[in-house]
Amino acid sequence: MTMPSSGADSQGRRLASELLLGLAVQRGSLKFLLEWIEVALAASAAAANASEKEGMIGYDCFIKSLEQLKHCSNAYVDNLQNQELKKTPDGMCSLSNAAICLFEEICRLALDCLSSTSSQNSQSRDSETSTVYVWGSNSSHQLAEGTLEKILQPKLAHGFANAQMIEAGQYCTFAISEDGSVKACGKGSYGRLGLGDSNNQSAPKKLTFEPHRSIRKISSSKGSDGHTLAVTAEGDIFSWGDGDYGKLGHGNSATQKYPKLIQGPLLGKIVVCVSAGYRHSASVTSDGELYTWGEGDFGRLGHSDSHSRNLPTLVKDISSVGQVACGSSHTIAVSQDGRTVWSFGGGDNGKLGHGETNRVYRPKVIECLQGLYIRKVCAGSQSSLALTSAGQVFAWGCGSCLGSGSSETTALRPRLIEELNSTKIIDISCGDSHCLALTHDNEVYAWGNNAMGQCGQGHTSTPIAKPKKVIGLEGIPIQQITAGTSHSLAWTAPPTDRQLVAWHRPFCVDLEESTFSYLRTFLDRYCDGINNEVPPQPFFSQREHHNFVYLCLKLLSTHLSLAQAGGTGAAVLGQQGRPLRNLLFRLIDSDVPNSIEEAVNETLSVGASLLLPPLRERTELLHNLLPQGPERWESLSKGQRMQLDIILTSLQDQSHIASLLGYSSPTDITEGFSQSFFPDQDSSKSGIIDNFHLAEILLKTLLRNIGFYTERAFGELEKNSDKQQSNTTPTESGPPSHVRQLLSALHKHLLAHCYSHSTAKDHLSIDLLHKHVKLLLLYASDTYRRSALLLKESLLDKSVTEKLHGILFNSAAGSVLCQVIYSLLLLPVSIVRPLLSNLLDLLQPLDHLIRLLPAAMLLEEQELEWTMHESESSPEKSISTDAKSWIWLIDMERTISFTVGQCLGEMLQGPVCSAEEENSAYWLQSQLLKNGLEIDSEQLDLLMNCLTGKALAGCVERKSFEFRVSEDTAALIDIALGTSVEPGYRIWNRMQVYANSNEWEHGTNGDHLLDTVSRFVLAVLLKHTGLFQEACKDDRCQPSERLVEIYQCVYKVRSTLLAQTNAAYNTANVQLPTWPRQLSDVSNNVEDEPRESCSTTEQTVNVRQSEEPQYNMEREIVLLDTEDFPKISKVLECFLARKAACHHENETVYEYSGTSSRPNSTGSVEAPETENTPKEKRRDSEEQYSFISMCHYVILRCAFLILGVRAVWLAKGWKEEPTLATTRKGNSMQEEQSSRARLRQNQSDCDARKQVNKEFSEGQSRMQSRSSEPTLGMIS
Asked: What are the boundaries of the region Disordered (predicted)?
């Protein structure tokens, strides 16, 4: 009707325009006002083209409509131009003029809205009075109303007046005032109200916090027996209520009736979010750490097990957590950027959202929510909810809380609630089995269980299977909601912890696609010919034309700012993102006035993240925009350069880099509206392959682009090498910094992924790394060859060398390659080895170039001086600036050489370990030997030879022991040799008395060799457990439990050795103790060792016994994992059993005693028997041979541990009881130092005894030499 072609006369068209404007203003929506502006401009242009009288509108009618808009504005923006509204003599004004004036007023209102929204997000409006509405169950006065009857629809509650934040729990309610004080009412059992008792409270009563704190947030459980968590303004947590399962976090399960501060691991942490589940609790700290505690059943705590925790415990598998929600038996966490959602715990009914019902014991990403920006999550009894930045609500689990229309529905994955899709949701809340949602226009929806009227429908019909608007709240500006177990609350105080999203504001703001569609249409239609002197129709002047374009850009910038502030994501633009982006860059390339250019730059700056295409399209666009030849960066148009710069900057975001390489889902995928948005598994796998192909292309493009700049720089340097010219500026000689930064970021992510997933055999990542690094090394080889040739031709001219340094460092063969080469050292050799030939090819041109550098030789000489004189600083001062500038290149050559050596296995890997080394490696890393040696190997040999010689010879006098040792070591030697010197003699007798009283052994007393072994074992245990002082002072009738364990270990060794006296291991005459027989179990696998003899008959017998004993390493590890005190006794059992079982040579046992005869069971040497026949002699030797051999080798190992190995309890990692530590604190270090001093002073020689065995001596020295390595911390 407004168009000339409609057939209506001018008065009819005018009336139609006025009527449409009145309807648009009456509707109060920006969409209808923009529609009127479009119609008005089109009608004016059509009239001008038809040479008819311009379209008109009544002046007074338009001013009246304009006044309605101005009445909504609280302030005016001065930087907008004021369009003069011209009034004709007949009281009319032109449609185009009126459209521009209306557009100006809309922009003013929008800018005012942007300003007010920012202030609302930064601070709450203190001047407003909060009103609270309640409904649902009031059985325990949780609604603070006098009656106990349920309230079926919202009712104004004066008891919660002026509450800033409210939390509805299990039959109780908590309200936080603006000053941070907390009031509570409702059910009081188990102290859940925190008022000091278990009584119900009919009216809100103030809680007391000690120490006094201002409370910012509260979370109260919706089930179990009720407990509550409160976060202070400083980030501390208080808890109270039922303490079962340790869910209060105080280290116990006690009920807490007053608020109590949680300490432990959270002490000093700033907590930003808490959630109280049914039987567990969770909190999130400011640094993104998630802590959980309480019952651990079903894995709800996320610690990979079902164990309960009564103190906050860090969930180690995830980081950068922003919020958490606890349900009945499951937990949901959201990342700080809202891009990732994890869930774990009980998976029954699909409430974890993983597409299955299995339990999950550690955080697992909900794949179906990848690509969405999640603003909030909630967890109920059997369902979960998630709110997206686009105002959509997803639900999963089972029951009516899914809002699907049926209470029997089960959703194993997140499903969009279609009933809420017609509006924008800004907040959600979950009770036990009902849900609430708040829309952007302050309406409240409810669904789920309605047995107590908690859905606010005016009845108790249940369930409410689809979201329905809560009745009785029309026209009330509800800002916040909360759902308890069976009651609900809504109030008008604006939130302090939630960003306000201005989805809609009357006349000026509509964050929806239609708004951006109208603005795109205006820009597309009126940007053409913006530089023409004659403006397009219907504008009368160029100024009017430019002003309209400027207004379009300002309104677009305002909406993009509001969308960015609200975190809505690019979905709000719909299909308008690409055309708007193209229009803006087209304006950049046009010769536009400064005001429009500034508006375009502002719009791109504000909305870059929203206007940029999805990640894949962005990468393809980057590939097309980057120069594909040696042309200069300046050859691109202004718009192209700006677009390229924005894309390069955006791609450097860490999450985008990971998405480019396929390591995470893209974060900027357009949010979908149905389940079909989520791809299936097959398409996901193909997408990963596509991502790697795209990343490979991008890596090649970036490398080629950097190469273009390097090629051009080389050409200019070669051309001007004989001319005296200043260095070219970095902007002219080097590629844009964003290009190198993006390439470097891609390298870091790729290398880090290959390092962290080296065992997962990620062939795609490794193949991509190999392809790109080979290309990079080939490029670097050519660059170094060309550099060396240039230096030769320039006769090492100083200016050329300086310029060449800048070119090389900025090229891909410079800083970029350095990062890659250094990172290769960290990767497994199996990944780096395929690059070996390429690294070798690079070394020759690199070495050739370095030899030409004038400072290279000087630098190497000075580095050698540094190694010899590390304390001197003079060499460093003498290094010239030229030499310093090339250090990175020389260091890279050495790193490449080192990498080559690593690949060849000649530097880090070394020769293949011998059988003896492999046999000893386990023990050299064990707890028993990790504390190192006390003396050097030569001194140790002398001491051991002397001690074992005296022990096997039956010597009981220590006065002939030629070496000076510490007092404790001397006392231990007394015990080992069985002298009558105190306190060793008393310690040995006490053990024997205790063993006899417990009938641990029968018929073995008086066996000298066995007693000698027992004494040595006792001495070892007393030394390495640190119980020697306690054994000396223990005058009680009954020894301490720790000493009893020492005695038990000694007699286990005796029992094992006695078992060797009978080939069938018949222990009928030996009564073993009742403790676990780990050592006996180990020894049962030991067969008689093979023996060598000069006689042919003995060799024949040995053939049948030549099979090597099999040792059970797994059993050793089991022993090491036990927690019985002292641990070293368990380790020692394994050590002695292994050494005794693995030895096969026994001849020198008899050589050691100075005779060829074998010793008897008492240890004395007998003359050869003549009365026994050879057959009887052979049988007797076979019965005693293994026993004697094992005894002697246990003595040898014990001597080694007594004299050579530093006490285990002196190690930093050794844990002991405080009382024992106090006893030793005063004298342990002094004794250790005095012992070392005496050993160093002992230079006297002694006659060495005959060697025990040649092979044993070699093995022993090898073990000692390996033990002396610095990595074991040995002391010489």
From this structure: 718-738, 1082-1107, 1149-1181, 1221-1276
Q: Describe the crossing of helices 737-756 and 763-793 by its angle, rounded to 10 degrees.
A: 130
Reduce the DSSP state of residue 169 to 3 states and report it.
Answer: coil
Those residues whose C-beta lies under 8 Å from the C-beta of residue 1109, and which sit 6 or more positions away, are 1085, 1086, 1087, 1089, 1141, 1142
Query: For the packed helices 1174-1203 and 967-977, what is the interaxial angle rounded to 10 degrees?
Result: 170
Structural domain total, the chain: 4
In terms of Cα–Cα distance, which of 679, 692, 868 is closest to 768? Answer: 692
**Residue where a domain stops, chosen among 578, 608, 638:** 608
Task: For residue 301, give the 3-state DSSP assignment.
Answer: coil
Q: 620, 674 in Cβ contact below 8 A?
A: no
Q: For residue 1098, tell me if it sits in a domain.
A: no
Q: Are 208 and 259 in contact (CB under 8 A)?
A: yes
Q: Read off the tokens for 7.
A: 């057939």
Predicted TM-score (pTM) above 0.70: no
Distances, alpha carbon 881 to alpha carbons 726, 727, 855, 885, in Å: 18, 17, 9, 6
What type of residue is 327? G
Q: What is the DSSP letter of 1209?
A: G
* Contact of 354 with 297, CB cutoff 8 Å: no
CA distance 544 to 203: 65
List b or e across 571-596, with b for residues whose CB sees 16 or more CB atoms inside 10 angstroms. Answer: bbbeebbebbbebbbbbbebebeeeb
CB 718 within 8 A of CB 790: yes
Q: Please give the angle made by the CA atoms of 823, 825 and 830, to the nearest 5 degrees.
A: 110
d(CA 1054, CA 1077): 12
Q: What is the token pair recorded at 1092?
A: 């060598």
643-697: pLDDT as tens digits: 777 877 777 776 667 777 777 654 443 333 333 333 333 444 444 556 677 788 8
- Taking the C-alpha atoms of residue 822 and residue 178, their distance in angstroms, rounded to an integer, is 56
pLDDT tens digits, residue range 569-592?
Answer: 777 888 888 899 888 888 888 888
Residues of the chain with pLDDT under 70: 1-9, 49-54, 72-83, 116-128, 498-502, 627-634, 654-656, 664-691, 721-736, 758-762, 854-883, 906-912, 923-924, 954-962, 1002-1006, 1034, 1060-1186, 1211-1276
Say yes or no: 1023 and 1051 in one domain.
yes
Measured distance CA(424)–CA(359) in Å, rounded: 34
Domain assignment present for 1230: no
Q: What share of the chain is helix, strand, coil (3-state, %, to 5)?
A: 50, 15, 40
| Alpha helices (H) along 757-869 | 763-793, 798-810, 817-824, 829-832, 836-852, 856-868
User: Distance between CA 706 and CA 812 in Å, rounded?
Assistant: 7
Cβ proximity of 177 and 493 under 8 Å: no
> By residue range, what is the domain housing residue 581?
511-608
Radius of gyration of the chain (CA): 43
- 854 with 947, same domain: the answer is no
Confidence (pLDDT) at 734: 53
Q: Is 415 helix (H, G, I), strand (E, B) or coil?
A: strand
DSSP-based three-state secondary structure for 125: coil
Query: Which residues have a Cβ under 8 Å from the Cβ of 991 and sit 6 or more positions away?
Result: 1018, 1047, 1050
Structural tokens at position 810: 């900025």
Claim to verify: residue 1059 and residue 979 sit in the same structural domain:
yes
Looking at the structure, tell me whether residues 905 and 964 fall in a common domain: no
Q: What are the Cα distances from residue 797, in Å, to 711, 791, 854, 1200?
A: 20, 7, 10, 67
Residue 170 lies in a domain: no
Q: Per the omega criterion (within 30 degrees of 0), is the bond before 312 cis?
A: no
Are both 784 and 837 inside the same structural domain? yes
Per-residue pLDDT of 831-862, as tens digits, reads: 898 999 999 999 999 988 988 886 666 666 66
